UniProtKB/TrEMBL annotation:
GO terms for molecular function: protein-arginine omega-N symmetric methyltransferase activity. InterPro entries: NDUFAF7 (IPR003788), NDUFAF7_sf (IPR038375), SAM-dependent_MTases_sf (IPR029063). Keywords: Methyltransferase, Transferase. The keyword Chloroplast does not apply. It holds the Pfam family Methyltransf_28. GO terms for biological process: methylation. It comes from Bradyrhizobium hipponense. This is Class I SAM-dependent methyltransferase. Gene3D superfamilies: 3.40.50.12710.
Length: 372
């Protein structure tokens, strides 16, 4: 990757306004109206920078479709349901989910599809993938989706929301920033003064972190928005992302380009920037507004509980030996706990209106263990 057009703009901002907080740098790199990573390209698949679960196998989207059907039944099978996807990639997951839902005509007829997508390149891909569908609308924000009973799917959505990083010094917690070094390059630094009383907001585990430790946090606005929606209008949200089950210190800010890790301060706007999702913080924020929380559990546990092994076996029975091998490889990728698998790194969290006391794959599974 070469120097990006955004680099000079970021340097100018730092020179005029001082060191830039990590959250602001991440926001500019991903969402700058002209040079932002997520507004200018299709980052998915072999030709892109990373691969998401729906691109690994059709089973992922199909099972989420059937999961949505089970929630719809628990909601009392309303005759009108908004199925909302946040950050829907190429539309692959929604296409697979809807194919599975066609076996339930009463639900399929009730659906109004809402795709929340800011990337014009991906939006075009989604329109092509989902062409011919009735009752489908695109939005820039979930705020623009009309009210009504809803099921919300958010796969790898929260990890790209801008993250604050705090560094512990002897005199308190300082906001981590981006500054320009003597060689004219971007580098990490810390705000000169600590953030007042920041430690009072921290979980006990983080308060005991050593000098030099990094703690990451995101504002609660997005999760509270989803939780308030399902609390007031009936329904549930399913959040799938990589992250940790409990709040803890650790630097997870990273950049990925061409399926490999790269320097997040190099070529801003040309690599995907992410940070792990704190599922304990999401759960706490959703409960604070009165929604019911289900899980979180690992992706492997969730997919196995809602039937991925059975679905894989059914597909393999009808497939050629080559295709059957592909299905077996995809199953391992989605559920395995090893380094090459997504099964334990990715977590699944359900949020619902309070009367939904149990949700498939989450509520009837024991809470996942401590750790990440």
């Amino acid at each position: 990757m070469t120097d990006s057009p955004l680099l000079n703009e970021i340097k100018s901002l730092i020179k005029s306004s001082g060191p830039m907080p990590v959250w602001r740098y991440m926001e500019l790199c991903l969402m700058h109206p002209r040079y932002g990573y997520y507004v200018s390209r299709d980052p998915l698949g072999r030709e892109g920078d990373f691969t998401t679960a729906p691109e690994v196998s059709q089973m992922f989207g199909e099972l989420l479709g059937l999961w949505s059907a089970s929630v719809w039944k628990q909601m009392g099978s309303p005759q009108f349901l908004r199925l909302i996807e946040l950050g829907p990639g190429r539309g692959t997951m929604m296409a697979d989910a809807l194919r599975a839902l066609r076996v339930l005509p009463p639900l399929y007829q009730a659906l109004h599809i809402h795709m929340v997508e800011v990337n014009p390149v991906l939006r075009e891909r989604q329109m092509a993938t989902l062409s011919g569908l009735r009752n489908i609308t695109w939005h820039n924000s979930v705020d623009d989706v009309p009210e009504g009973p809803s099921i919300i799917l958010a796969n790898e959505y929260f990890d790209v929301l801008p993250v604050h990083q705090m560094v512990r010094h002897e005199n308190g917690w300082h906001e981590r920033v981006i500054e320009i070094n003597g060689n004219g390059k971007l580098e990490f630094g810390a705000a000169a003064e600590p953030t007042p009383r920041f430690e009072m907001l921290l979980p006990p585990l983080v308060r005991a972190a050593p000098i030099g430790a990094v703690f990451e946090w995101r504002p609660d606005a997005e999760i509270m928005k989803l939780a308030t929606r399902v609390r007031d209008q009936d329904g549930a949200a399913l959040i799938i992302d990589y992250g940790h089950l409990r709040s803890d210190a650790g630097d997870t800010f990273q950049a990925i380009a061409r399926h490999s890790f790269t320097d997040p301060l190099k070529a801003p706007g040309q690599a995907d920037l992410t940070a792990h999702v704190d599922f304990q913080a999401l759960s706490r924020a959703a409960e604070d507004v009165g929604a019911r929380v289900h899980g979180p559990v690992t992706q492997g546990d969730f997919l196995k509980r809602i039937g991925i092994d059975t679905r894989a076996a059914a597909l393999m029975q009808k497939a050629t030996p080559e295709i059957a091998t592909d299905i077996s490889v995809a199953l391992k990728r989605l559920t395995d706990t090893g380094r090459s698998g997504m099964g334990s790194m990715f977590k699944v969290l359900g949020i619902s209106e309070p009367r939904l006391t149990a949700i498939a794959g989450l509520s009837d599974l024991e809470q996942a263990g401590e750790g990440s």
